[in-house]
Write a structure and sequence with these properties.
Structural class: alpha/beta
Radius of gyration: 17 Å
Number of helices: 7
Largest sheet: 6 strands, mixed
Bound molecules: zinc ion
Order of helices and strands: EHEHEHEEEHHHH
Strand order of the largest sheet: 1-5-6-4-2-3
């Protein structure tokens, strides 16, 4: 079966691939409480002109998927910053709750990757977190045409999938839901709602990871 999504693990020297912990809710009551609160992430986006027509709807679709996992998405468009303030924010080091999204043609990105990949997420496994996701706008558009489905919606689903990798901190895929490795044309046309959502355990894992990152940077931060 083809894997149309792929993530790269960056292993730090001396590190090990220990992924299972990211799916485990910490035993402390404090951590559990924060994990069930809504979280907010900021996605800095860089978009090529070719996908400009679809990107607004795609962002809306992606945010709706992530929101169903009780994580709100704020977009920071760094392609053509609309103000001095935005330009300055885009130039700052990324914060604990920020990730970077590139939507670019495959020919402008890493062409060594599998020709069927629609995108990838760069994940630092030791830290169980990733900060950079790339989505191939030309491949998504071609695939939507072949399947006869809406390009913007598919783009949004791919974006949400790659954000999922970044927040989960793993290249693993699930057997069900949005984090499946392969999306067939039949899957796309069937458009079953549950195929395009995170599983409950994935939503919990993402919120746990975000809460843990916040506390790691600010131990005095209230858990709630
Ligand atoms: Zn994937």
């Amino acid at each position: 079966m083809r894997h149309w999504f792929h993530s790269v693990n960056v292993r730090l020297s001396g590190g090990t691939f220990v992924l299972i912990a990211v799916f485990a809710v910490p035993s402390g009551a404090t951590a559990q409480a924060s994990a069930f609160n809504r979280q907010t992430i900021i996605v800095r986006s860089y978009t090529d002109a070719g996908s400009a027509g679809d990107i607004r709807d795609a962002k809306r679709s992606a945010a709706a998927i992530v929101r169903r996992a009780d994580i709100d998405v704020l977009w920071l468009d760094c392609t053509l910053p609309d103000s001095v303030e935005t330009r300055e924010r885009c130039s700052l080091p990324i914060d604990w709750n920020e990730v970077v999204l590139r939507v670019v043609p495959a020919v402008a990105a890493d062409t060594r990757r599998d020709a069927e990949d629609l995108g990838f997420a760069l994940v630092v496994v030791n830290e169980r977190h990733g900060s950079l996701a790339t989505v191939y706008s030309d491949r998504v558009a071609a695939r939507s045409r072949r399947a006869g489905v809406d390009a913007a919606e598919l783009l949004g689903r791919v974006i949400a999938h790659e954000i999922g990798h970044l927040l989960l901190g793993t290249n693993r895929h699930g057997s069900r839901g949005l984090m499946r490795a392969s999306w067939t044309g039949a899957d796309l046309r069937r458009n079953l709602a549950t195929d395009w959502l995170f599983l409950n355990k994935e939503g919990t894992a993402m919120r746990v990871a975000l809460a843990a990152r916040a506390r790691a940077l600010d131990p005095d931060r209230p858990a709630s």
